[in-house]
């Protein structure tokens, strides 16, 4: 039987999240096949968390698309959401945080390559989101999940120029100031397998946003999102004066 909570500090470091109840995280990583072979395992399997996480991901994606693309009708919103949270996409999200290596699997699942199987990784990512929602609520879940969804939009929405925060910020600054934003990596921390990057975005020579993530791309997206929101709010206030 596996040692409870072994390796979970590493996973939380990669995620940039610290669980208040690490038992929830342990359950999210436990496949039913492991529990079947280890009936004394007290944390249970991840199937209920998977059910919850699936609903949370759908909701967060739907709300994000609703606000980001106000001109889209219900049909297009639904189609893009479906593509954005399809099994292959969620499996890639799982791979970005090295989720597969932390799963507890039965011998059969282990031997058949379960750690790399798309369906397994998708289910595990949904369970992870379910656990995070129970542990830290919707706000904490969105903070972790939205950078993945933002990055994934670039692959899903090929026909929309404003498909991600970086693109939208560049288009906006070019239109307003005739000058693109620039990004500077101000911090790298953690071991090579679990790097976290902090990036600042400059507009007209001033820092307008900062973001962090497990890759420079995710950190840049997060920084661009902050900057875009701040600049649009500033323009709205100036316009109302």
Describe the model.
The structure is a single chain. With 241 residues, the chain is mainly alpha-helical. It has 2 domains: 8-156, Ribonuclease iii, N-terminal Endonuclease Domain, Chain A; 165-240, Double Stranded RNA Binding Domain, CATH 3.30.160. Helix content is 61%, strand content 10%. The protein has 10 helices and 3 strands, in the order αααααααααβββα. It has a 3-stranded antiparallel β-sheet with strand order 1-2-3. α6 (87-96) crosses α8 (118-156) and α9 (165-177) crosses α10 (216-240). The chain is globular and about 65 Å long. The model is unreliable at 159-163 (pLDDT under 50).
Secondary-structure blueprint of this entry?
Layout: H1 8-15, H2 22-28, H3 32-37, H4 47-68, H5 74-84, H6 87-96, H7 107-111, H8 118-156, H9 165-177, E1 182-189, E2 196-203, E3 206-213, H10 216-240
Antiparallel strand pairs: 1-2, 2-3
Helix pairs in contact: 2-8, 4-5, 4-8, 6-8, 8-10, 9-10
Poorly predicted spans: 159-163
CATH class of the largest domain: Mainly Alpha
| Secondary structure: number of strands | 3
Portion in beta strands: 5-15%
CATH superfamily (homologous) name of the largest domain: Ribonuclease III domain
Report the mean per-residue pLDDT as an integer: 87
- Helix tally equals 10
Query: Which overall shape is indicated by the principal axes computed on the Cα atoms?
Result: globular
Order of helices and strands: HHHHHHHHHEEEH
Helix content: 55-70%
Structural class from helices and strands?
Answer: mainly alpha
Radius of gyration: 20 Å
Largest sheet: 3 strands, antiparallel
Number of domains: 2
- At CATH level 2, the architecture of the largest domain is Orthogonal Bundle
What is the CATH fold-level name of the largest domain?
Ribonuclease iii, N-terminal Endonuclease Domain, Chain A
End-to-end C-alpha gap: 66 Å
Largest beta sheet: strand ordering? 1-2-3
């Amino acid at each position: 039987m596996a040692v409870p909570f072994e390796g979970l500090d590493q996973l939380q470091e990669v995620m940039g999240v610290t669980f208040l109840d690490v038992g929830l995280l342990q359950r999210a990583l436990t496949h039913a096949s492991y529990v079947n072979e280890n009936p004394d395992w007290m944390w249970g399997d991840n199937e209920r968390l998977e059910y919850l996480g699936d609903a949370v991901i759908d909701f967060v994606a739907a709300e994000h698309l609703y606000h980001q693309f106000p001109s889209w009708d219900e049909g297009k919103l639904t189609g893009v959401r479906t593509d954005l949270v399809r099994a292959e996409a969620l499996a890639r999200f799982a791979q970005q945080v090295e989720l597969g290596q932390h799963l507890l699997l039965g011998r059969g699942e282990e031997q058949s390559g379960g750690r790399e199987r798309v369906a397994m990784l998708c289910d595990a990512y949904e369970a992870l989101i379910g656990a995070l929602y129970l542990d830290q609520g919707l706000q904490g879940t969105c903070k972790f999940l939205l950078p993945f969804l933002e990055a994934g939009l670039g692959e899903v929405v090929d026909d929309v120029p404003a498909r991600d925060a970086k693109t939208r910020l560049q288009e906006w600054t070019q239109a307003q100031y005739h000058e693109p934003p620039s990004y500077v990596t101000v911090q790298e921390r953690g071991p090579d397998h679990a790097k976290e990057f902090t990036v600042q975005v400059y507009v007209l020579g001033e820092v307008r946003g900062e973001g962090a993530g497990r890759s420079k791309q995710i950190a840049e997206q997060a920084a661009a999102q902050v900057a875009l929101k701040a600049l649009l709010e500033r323009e709205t206030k100036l316009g109302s004066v």
